[in-house]
Design brief:
The chain is of the alpha/beta class and about 120 residues long. The chain is about 20% helix and about 40% strand. The chain is built from 2 helices and 8 strands, in the order E-H-E-E-E-E-H-E-E-E. The strands form 2 sheets. The protein has a 4-stranded mixed sheet, covered by helices on one side. A 4-stranded mixed sheet has the order 5-8-7-6, covered by helices on one side. The protein is globular, with a radius of gyration of 14 Å.
């Protein structure tokens, strides 16, 4: 149902470097790019994540209550992606661990303050 999710940025080069390094941990790669943004994905027919400067030219702001969840296939990958986000300058928003039965996740904010989660089932 979801084709892609876009997060706003005020520093495209910093955001691109953050997501290049972070999403490499999930097996994603750049699937398109143009002057205002870049998107990463694992396949053309799967959802992708993009960062862009706002179309209207105003500053990007963070939506309160908005979060993007990145699915991976193991607890180890959740641990690795969450740790990598923090190494890259992201902020911890909830340590890695079990969140109810069969749901393992860690929460963080990117360099622009956008909230993300990396999770797996099982």
């Amino acid at each position: 149902m979801i084709g892609y999710v876009t997060l706003g940025t005020n520093d495209l080069s910093a955001a691109t470097a953050f997501y290049d390094a972070l999403l490499a941990e999930t097996g994603a790669r750049r699937v398109w790019e143009f002057p205002r943004g870049v998107a990463w994905g694992v396949a053309p027919d799967k959802p992708s994540l993009a960062v862009m400067t706002p179309f209207d030219g105003n500053a990007a702001t963070v939506g309160n209550g908005v979060m993007v969840a990145l699915v991976v296939d193991s607890h180890e990958k959740v641990d690795r992606v969450h740790a990598r986000a923090l190494e890259l300058g992201g902020k911890d928003e909830g340590p890695v661990g079990a969140r109810g039965e069969g749901f393992y996740a860690g929460y963080f904010r990117d360099l622009d303050g956008n909230k993300l989660n990396v999770f797996c089932h099982g």
